[in-house]
Amino acid sequence: MTTASPLLRTQGLTKRYASVTATDDLDLEVPRGRVGLVGANGAGKTTLFRMMLGLSRPTSGSLEVCGIDVHEDPIGVRSRLGYMPEHDCLPLDQTAADVVSTFGELSGLPARAARQRASDVLDLVGLDEARFRPIGGFSTGMRQRAKLAQALVADPELVLLDEPTAGLDPLGRGEMLALVARLGTFGISVLLATHLLDDVQQVCDHVVMLDGGRLVVSGGTGSLLERTGLLTVDVGPNREDLLAVLADEGLTASVINGVVEVQIHGDESLDVVRDVVARLGLPLHRMTSRLTSLDEVFVDRAGSGAPS
């Protein structure tokens, strides 16, 4: 295993249950960093996590995590992973410090080192002052932070986060995403499973989209967020002149609320509008466009039925 090895590599990965195919002939190669694994409930995200952790064997195909074949060395893979499950799983009558340090000891740390490491990660996730309180008295946000702390205590190479913002209010959600974004500064890669594409768009460098166990798209977040949709152009009273020339250039445009709205498809359309405005010598008061959201990417790619 080298640092150049992909975070995750699958070939023909398939997992079938009695009447359900959870992952279907999945071919992936995912780079290190912060990766979003997105899809609706039942898309195959949790099944993929279980196979990565060695808790479930694939029906067919191969799976490598951090350069290690999970089938050949499941313990070696698991020693490099931290896992934050979606649902509450920590003992409510124990303090956060005791629980997190116990997980540290289970990972192989000596007791004193585990206690120190637990203190460090609880401080990192914002639970330093609450570390000696029973988890049963924690709010939802604090419990999510405690789960994140136990996933980080053994200093994993990769941490698997299953719906880390589930049940959080907007403030708590923002704070959790900020924590996820910080993990990269410690050299920890992240695989974040969620159905909230906005979360991924905020903090992830790479996106893997699944639908019904099949790959919809895998790629860099920036490359998927193409500039498209509508361009708003304000040229004052010269709107009709602009409309006429844009029509000659093959662009669809109309006047809405006193400004020209142009349907664009990528940077080439933007260049055409800019050049037309300059050629006509029109006063340009404002020109704004928007980026495609990951929701739109998912709907477009899933609807086409072809992975890319």
Q: Major beta sheet, specifics? A: 6 strands, mixed
Helical fraction equals 25-40%
Total strand count, please?
14
Number of helices: 11
Categorize the overall geometry. elongated
Proper CATH architecture of the largest domain: 3-Layer(aba) Sandwich
Low-confidence stretches: none
**Derived structural class:** alpha/beta
Taking the alpha carbons of the first and last residues, their distance comes to 28 Å
In CATH, the topology of the largest domain is named Rossmann fold
Count of discrete structural domains: 2
CATH class of the largest domain: Alpha Beta
Mean pLDDT: 90
SSE order, as H and E? EEEHEEHEHHHEHEHEEHEHEEHEH
* CATH homology-level superfamily of the largest domain: P-loop containing nucleotide triphosphate hydrolases
* Percentage of residues in DSSP E strands: 25-35%
- Rg over CA atoms: 24 Å
Q: What strand order characterises the main sheet?
A: 6-7-8-3-9-10
Outline:
With 308 residues, the chain is of the alpha/beta class.
Describe the structure in your own words.
With 308 residues, the protein is of the alpha/beta class. The chain has 2 domains: 8-218, P-loop containing nucleotide triphosphate hydrolases (Rossmann fold); 226-291, YebC, transcriptional regulation domain (Alpha-Beta Plaits, 2-Layer Sandwich), CATH 3.30.70.980. The protein is 36% helix and 28% strand. It contains 11 helices and 14 strands. The chain has helices spanning 45-52, 74-78, 96-106, 111-124, 140-152, 170-183, 197-203, 221-224, 239-248, 267-280, 294-304; strands at residues 8-16, 21-30, 34-38, 60-65, 68-69, 81-84, 158-162, 189-194, 206-211, 214-220, 227-234, 253-256, 259-265, 286-291. Strands 6-7-8-3-9-10 form a 6-stranded mixed beta sheet, with helices on both faces. A 4-stranded antiparallel beta sheet has the order 2-1-4-5. A 4-stranded antiparallel beta sheet has the order 12-13-11-14, covered by helices on one side. A hairpin with a 2-residue loop joins strand 9 and strand 10. Helix 3 crosses helix 4 (111-124). The radius of gyration is 24 Å and the shape is elongated.
